[in-house]
């Protein structure tokens, strides 16, 4: 893949336009003080910190490598501290987090998403405030504007974001060239690409919709492009409604794509990793996903360079007569790190989180190929062109709409995900899809 220097560092000055609706452990052996304790480990005392995360060595190789390296470095610098990892796939992680929260046995350090996902954990008193980590070195003024705010409730910050994402449509340039296809700028052109690929026996789009949030990306982009981001925002918050004609049309367009055989066979029964494999194995031509996948297309040494060289991206196309624009993205702050309020090693856990976020910001760009939530000057680094181009797109974004299931309150988010799968499976009409969402949002939980 061609490489070039980033023209400017990751010093974003715009405030991300996040569409927020109201805006994924065992007992420890060492007691520490309360929330106000200094975020430094007590020298000499043996401490074990349990960390649960969602970067398995198989599907997230570069992130896994980086986490393990940061932990190894921290343990070397703090020989009295042992950090135990528990690693789960995305959906397994979310499910276990719910189970552990019910029994008040969260890990000392874990991964969370922002906004609505985080809300029940915060209201339940399960996450410790981390504002003290934002006021001193090494993290003071280091976060990109708009990222920590997504993890704040009642003027307190309950997790520190480590990623910043937008969601492009990745595509296989070789497959496109084989069928003389151009990158589509409009949705009608996109459907022509789908029709050509499907007509030639090639799966146009890789999708694993068993996880459901993957299909939500398609609905969200169509909703944005047809009805506009404000309409979607108002529907999610309850000040508008999902039965808005533009939002119903977006749901209808999802089923139009299904009818066109736009997605790989069996997509509704496949996990995201299984769906992604269709793209990675060059059986599908396109794959819509967040920039957390960049390592697989740039830095992961286990992925053949010949395949990496074939991967390009394009913005979700505009819809003729629609209210959205091509520089509006679905994405936002990625996952963040929390510390359990009831951790018996809370001060030590906070010290580790402080160290982890700082090191992740410094190393994630070159080691993992991830766009961090902290400001990083990348002008001196040689980086893959795909990374450079997507970083520039993020810098130039007109708005970034946070993932719908993250925005929504837990019960409404569950309805959204269930109805996404029903919509893609044609088990619900666009009108039923809208009605169920309206009902869930009105319940307000």
Features:
single chain, 445 residues, alpha/beta, 5-stranded mixed β-sheet, 4-stranded mixed β-sheet, 16 helices, 16 strands, 41% helix, globular
Describe this entry's structure for a reader.
The chain has 445 residues and is of the alpha/beta class. Helix content is 41%, strand content 14%. It has helices at 61-77, 90-102, 115-123, 173-178, 187-199, 213-227, 229-237, 245-259, 272-280, 294-298, 305-308, 346-368, 385-395, 404-407, 410-424, 430-443, and strands spanning 3-5, 47-53, 81-87, 109-112, 152-153, 156-157, 160-161, 164-166, 169-172, 203-205, 284-288, 311-314, 328-333, 336-339, 382-384, 399-402. The strands form five sheets. The protein has a five-stranded mixed β-sheet, with helices on one face. The protein has a four-stranded mixed β-sheet with strand order 10-11-9-12. A three-stranded mixed β-sheet has the order 8-13-16. It is globular. The model is unreliable at 1-42 (pLDDT under 50).
List the helices and strands and how they pair.
Elements: E1 3-5, E2 47-53, H1 61-77, E3 81-87, H2 90-102, E4 109-112, H3 115-123, E5 152-153, E6 156-157, E7 160-161, E8 164-166, E9 169-172, H4 173-178, H5 187-199, E10 203-205, H6 213-227, H7 229-237, H8 245-259, H9 272-280, E11 284-288, H10 294-298, H11 305-308, E12 311-314, E13 328-333, E14 336-339, H12 346-368, E15 382-384, H13 385-395, E16 399-402, H14 404-407, H15 410-424, H16 430-443
Parallel strand pairs: 2-3, 2-4, 10-11, 13-16
Antiparallel strand pairs: 1-15, 4-14, 5-6, 7-14, 8-13, 9-11, 9-12
Helix pairs in contact: 1-12, 6-7, 6-8, 6-15, 8-16, 15-16
